[in-house]
């Protein structure tokens, strides 16, 4: 199945990148094709084209910011907070596949996604203060390992190193 996704958090550095990586890894592991657009304060990365959207069977949006959904008209859009992409990517992918197989279209909210597509309401970010995943000792043994980007490669850390060096 062909999927497209958007991840977005207010800064677009840690959580949206982790959600994008988890959605990609999970969908591909389940045998689906996926392209993920990451939105943040610096703009969009890996933007979805009209062709990507037209070819998609379903859309996944994990965002703590408002994301316009008008370009996905006629597609099932599973929407949830960015933490759903980080912690429950498998559920988001399964829900999108189920919606596409059932021939559904429109918005399917999961959890506490932003209520407005044009407003600026956000859901609360969860995680550690600087956006890093919890240490292995902080999670239950049966919970899967959370994967995400290397915080040392983040734009602000690189900029700080560059300016101080």
Description:
With 165 residues, this protein is of the alpha/beta class. It contains 5 helices and 6 strands; from the N terminus they run βαββαββααβα. A 6-stranded mixed beta sheet has the order 3-2-1-4-5-6. α1 (15-29) packs across α4 (89-101). The model is unreliable at 112-139 (pLDDT under 50).
Estimated share of beta-strand residues:
15-25%
Secondary-structure element pattern, one letter each: EHEEHEEHHEH
Structural class: alpha/beta
Radius of gyration: 16 Å
Strand order of the largest sheet: 3-2-1-4-5-6
Determine the number of helices (DSSP H or I, runs of at least 4 residues).
5
Q: Can you count the beta strands? A: 6
Average pLDDT figure: 77
Tell me the layout of helices and strands.
Elements lengths: L1 E7 L6 H15 L3 E8 L2 E3 L4 H6 L2 E6 L12 E5 L1 H6 L1 H13 L4 E4 L45 H10 L1
Parallel strand pairs: 1-2, 1-4, 4-5, 5-6
Antiparallel strand pairs: 2-3
Helix pairs in contact: 1-4
Q: What are the main properties of this structure?
A:
six-stranded mixed β-sheet, alpha/beta
Would you summarize the structure shown here?
Helix content is 30%, strand content 20%. With 165 residues, the chain is of the alpha/beta class. Residues 112-139 have low confidence and may be disordered.
């Amino acid at each position: 199945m062909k999927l497209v996704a958007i991840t977005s958090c207010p800064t677009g550095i840690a959580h949206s990148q982790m959600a994008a990586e988890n959605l990609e890894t999970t969908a591909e592991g389940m045998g689906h094709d996926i392209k993920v657009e990451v939105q943040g304060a610096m703009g969009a990365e890996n933007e979805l084209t009209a062709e990507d959207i037209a070819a998609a069977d379903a859309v996944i949006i994990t965002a703590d910011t408002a994301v316009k959904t008008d370009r996905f008209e006629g597609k099932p859009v599973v929407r949830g907070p960015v933490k759903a992409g980080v912690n429950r990517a498998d559920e988001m992918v399964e829900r999108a596949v189920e919606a596409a197989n059932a021939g559904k279209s429109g918005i399917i909210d999961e959890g506490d996604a932003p209520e407005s597509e044009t407003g600026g309401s956000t859901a609360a970010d969860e995680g550690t203060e600087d956006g890093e995943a919890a240490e292995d000792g902080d999670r239950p043994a049966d919970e899967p390992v959370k994967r995400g980007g290397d915080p040392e490669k983040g734009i602000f850390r690189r900029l700080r190193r560059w300016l101080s060096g």
